[in-house]
User: What shape does this take?
Amino acid sequence: MKNQFGCRTFCRKSTLTMAVLAGLATTSTAFAQSTTGNISGSVPAGSNQTIVVEGSTGVRREVQPDAKGRYSATNLPLGSYKVSLLRDGATVETRENVGLRVGQSTDVSFASASATDATSLSGVTVSGTVLPNIDVTTVDSRTVITAEQLAKLPMGRNAEAVAKLAPGVVANSGGFTSGTGRSTVSFSGSSVTENAYYINGFNTTDPLNGMGGLQLPYGAIDQQEVYTGGYSAQYGRSDGGVISQVGKRGTNEWKFGAQLLWEPAFARAKYQDLHYTSTPATQVAGNLYWPKSENTRSTTTVSAYAGGPLIKDKLFLFVAGEFERNEQHNVNAVDNTSTPASTNRFNAPRWYGKLDWNITDNNILEVTGASDKREGSGTRYYYDFNDRKRLGTIGPVDDTKTGGDLHVFKYTGYITDSLTISALWGEMKTSDYDSPGAYDPNLTRVANVTSQNPALNGGTPIGNTQVTSLADADRGNKQRNFRLDISYQIGDHTILAGIDNMKSQANDIGTRDPGPGYVWNYGHTINPNAPISTAAGDQFVPAPALYPNGADGYYVSQNVSNNLVTVRSDQRAQYLEDKWQVTDRVLFSLGIRNDQFTDYNPFGQAFITQTKPQWAPRIGASWDVLGDGSFKVFGNAGRYYLGLPLNPATGAASGYVSTQTYYTYGGIDANGVPTGLTQISGAVSANNSYGVPPDPRTVTARNLEAEHQDEFILGFDKTLGENWVYGAKLTRRLLRTAIDDYCEIDRVTDKAAALGFTPDPSKTNSCYLINAGQSNTFTLLDAQGNQLLVPLSREEMGFQALKRKYYGLELFMEHSFDGTWYGKFDYVFSRSYGNTEGQVRSDLRQGGASASEDWDNAAIMVNTNGVQNNDHTHVFKAYGYWQVAPEWQVSGNLNVASGGPELCLGYYGPDHSNPTGYGNAYHWCDGEPSPPGSHGRLPWTFTLDLGVTWRPGFANDKLAFAANVFNVLNQQRAIFRNPNKEGDSPYTPNPQYRIPLYETDPRYARLSVTYDF
Assistant: This one.
């Protein structure tokens, strides 16, 4: 019986063997955040032979096989190709419908045919149903999801939801979201700010905090790569993972389509209400904290696309648009006096356009434009939390606009069969506009009103509707990226070299307090005779009982916060790499990358200059054990450097203001403002943030090293029968160096005095950027401005050595689509442990990169060694689809994960002190040491999503109706609980302790109709 290639089974095996050997003998030159793929293979010995590659996008390449019969056509745009072997100008064999996977090499080899017995054969790809799903020419770890799979699988319509299909990728535990409202993810133990995002090869990562990046409209995605490790020296600026999207392009056939999706409110299960764990003295509705069951939401999305030739074989256009509207009715927590309830509308317009110009067969120009925005508006309402009834209108919510636009130009030149050059330049502009809808400049904001003295408010909190903060109208970011890449093949070597430069700028970043420029924040201690803060020096805050109206432990602080700045950075890199085919079975990848980072303060002065060589070696190998592509063993080791986001420049380098002045009070007016004040302290700041711009020479420790991580991977892939592939992989990650702020300035000045120095106190910083958990040398200034170098060992700073370690074992099995079903099953056993999560702290929901409370002082780092917030010991994933009948398809997506660590934080030590002014954030619980993981685990999460699609036969496969149900079991499990056991003061219970502020979303449904023609 003949197979689909026009020959019998023995012919297939021969072709398979030659294809795999050819793939081993010809290295790929499309890696990491590439937008292209390769076609390579071998031909029978002979003279006057030519390989002609012709694509659906009009691309045409002619390459000559070498003396061994090997050939390679590299850096080809994604699409469908026809590959022909010509001998003496006559076509001998042809393979059609050859599909490419981004960043991978597709093997198309030709059997020993002659011109007289030429046979037209269908195309084969490494990822198809004929050749096995093993690419023996790669040494990295990636998951590629195609547009076809995106259309079939039930999941969220964003890059992070797609990324969670990959092993080692988990949802973040701190509720962090990107600027456009998407929940971010963690890769193999790294924090959520350590990932990189790309669109068509351009870096779209948020330059301010590294929190997410711009994305394509869902229907415009051709393929999405998810890198979990081991990528080429061509790419860096990530020690977490990489999410790279490649958009669709026009072909020689015009295609159009439209889609309507609806997630109705009536099909969404109710959220669970949240209750206080101990009812506060001043309460609104008993132990009710947040009536989340009153919240509803619905989403409607419309999208359309068109693509085809403007000039056949020469000029192509693809455009896509998507408009999403999300409508919500929200009731907030009972202590939210500015917005007790609201109706919110979020509009998310997204578009994508691409022009492809085949100037000649050897010169291609690509132009990409894209936009990804989110606009919010709505109305605020008063709310009766006892009767659960919305009352009168307060006014509009803030008018917000986030996200932005990008445009990218890329040139590819096939100079010779062996030499390819590509150049990319692009620019991205994003906005972070936030304007209050109804702002009263004469109203003072009040916070934490549930800690008011009930004797003065009648037992009911008194607040007002003032906005939380004010931002500049022009707040936003700008980023430019330039790349030049050269690929040259010589014998068994493919030499890669290039540069990768990026300039970023954050404009008018920060906020200031509304009204008179400060906020009243209420507090209470059950031990009125104990100091509010036991920090040394001018950070000390005495006991409220020593002052009038303080005998019952009630007090208030006047908080002042102001930081509006513009900062920028330069990040440059050069790389060199050799892909060396040592034998027909063994491939070595030997690369080196050099990164340089420079950061500037608001005055244009460099305060971080990491321009000395920062060598990042990348070494990998792939071994085809049996020589037929059925068993691949691979491994790699590499170092990855990460430049700082711009956020630290807005803080430590800028001289921001963040102070608190404490009072007792004898009354509360109708707006919640305290009256009858008695001042009990001066303006204090836990971080010495008094608004004095520091000298740029003093902002960082001397010779500050960039954050970097080492990674080691060893794994194998093995075929099983015709359609199965299984494998295993071990991953080890070691964070070698991190940067964070250090604010225990007294240790620095005391050491300076011990050395006989006399620093000028007016020129001493509030905080320094240091290499966390290492010895550092600080620069102080004397009265004349001379530098004083003050070294402190790690022990003198009171720190243990930096530690963040990750190990993981992945086991997987995948069944390629055989015309009936596709499925992948994945299990990861892992452990992420140490004394730092990375650039953020999920347990305190601190998302400012490299500016969390970690490493600020010695006390905050005591008892921090343990399993980290992103640690999930067991994660099982399974997804796939089944063509149950010609018109019907069902699909599923299952994610089962063990819970992260439970945490308990409180005041410091057995005596519940507050030595550095950080309140209830120390790793102590009830006076006992409380390292991460010592209080058990959060519950397991089980998320099952199911879908069904009907493509009626009468519509010729153009029309589709689909229904998806997410979290079918409606298991709303806690993924974050408030970790602070004590409240405003030592020994005072925190009513919000262990409230599950973040849970898995309740069950909801999505209905859709699609038409393509």
In short: The longest helix spans residues 9-25. Residues 1-32, 113-132 have pLDDT under 50 and may be disordered.
